Amino acid sequence: MNGLEITHLDPWLKKPLGAEAPGRAEFVGRYRLDLGIATVSEALFLAGGPDGWKLWIAHEESDSRLVPFLRRVAEQGPGCLAEAMGGGVAVAGNLQASPREAARALFQVLLQVRHPHSMPCAPYQGGLLPAEDLSGEVAGFQAELERNRQAAELAERAARSPILEIARLFGLGPTPAGQNPEAWRANCPCGGQHWIMIATGSGQFGCGYCRRKGGPDELRSFCEERGRKEGNPDRPRRRGAGAMGPVEEDDQ
């Protein structure tokens, strides 16, 4: 949403904001969160106001554990949020909007920054945002990702990107990331369970985990340093699903 000023972003709760749960918070909704190798049950709560909205998340292993927890929060107040298996402020920001509009805007940010590692899925339960609004936001986000992936593939077929050619040459299996028509991701040359991100418009890659970035020459050097051998970039490949998202494997 236009006008949203993000002041805190911690989608995986690695840097908790504040040690205590809010004194007042409104239940936004809940859903299952698909993490690829497992799912958890997650609930959203909105606290604060236009000068400081906070989207709290609380998750449990299953609906059978989350539902009683939500009942306890409703009866005893949001101070119980600290008792969840995992919880804290995932997104915070300033926005002159109603609570419902703020909840929607912060949820949209949460969807974007967690992709491609997780995605909400049914069953949904509504609160401040109706269940159909939550599922609609997820469906809209997924549709946008698919449009961007298709646009990226069309652009690549029309004119091959030099940096993607290097990624294919060394077997990194680049695929469209979906955030925009120029965003791609590929396996990291280091062999770890994470990706590098590639921007075809600028011809640059980056790996925050390995702290490497640059253009086609730097990507080639990175691959060679890690002992990767050149292959055939045009060899047919099939797409599979790994623990942290799509990967590609050689056809047999």
Summarize the structure in words.
It is a single chain. With 252 residues, the protein is an alpha+beta fold. It has 2 domains: 5-145, no CATH class; 160-250, no CATH class. Helix content is 30%, strand content 31%. A hairpin with a 7-residue loop joins strand 8 (183-187) and strand 9. The longest helix has 28 residues, at 131-158. The radius of gyration is 21 Å and the shape is elongated. The model is unreliable at 236-252 (pLDDT under 50).
Question: What gyration radius follows from the Cα positions, in whole Å?
Answer: 21 Å
Number of domains: 2
Largest sheet: 6 strands, antiparallel
**Strand content range:** 25-35%
Portion in helices: 25-40%
Shape by Cα distribution: elongated
Compressed to H and E, one letter per element, the order equals EEEEHEHEHHEEEEEHEE
Compute the number of strand runs.
Answer: 13
**Cα end-to-end separation:** 47 Å
The number of distinct helices, counting runs of at least 4 residues, comes to: 5
Average pLDDT for all residues: 89
Read across the widest sheet, the strand sequence of neighbours is 1-5-4-3-2-6
Point out poorly predicted stretches: 236-252
Helix and strand content put the structural class at alpha+beta
Secondary structure topology:
Layout: E1 5-9, E2 26-34, E3 39-47, E4 53-60, H1 63-76, E5 86-94, H2 99-114, E6 119-126, H3 131-158, H4 162-169, E7 175-176, E8 183-187, E9 195-199, E10 204-207, E11 212-214, H5 216-225, E12 237-242, E13 245-250
Antiparallel strand pairs: 1-5, 2-3, 2-6, 3-4, 4-5, 7-8, 8-9, 9-10, 10-11, 12-13
Helix pairs in contact: 2-3, 4-5
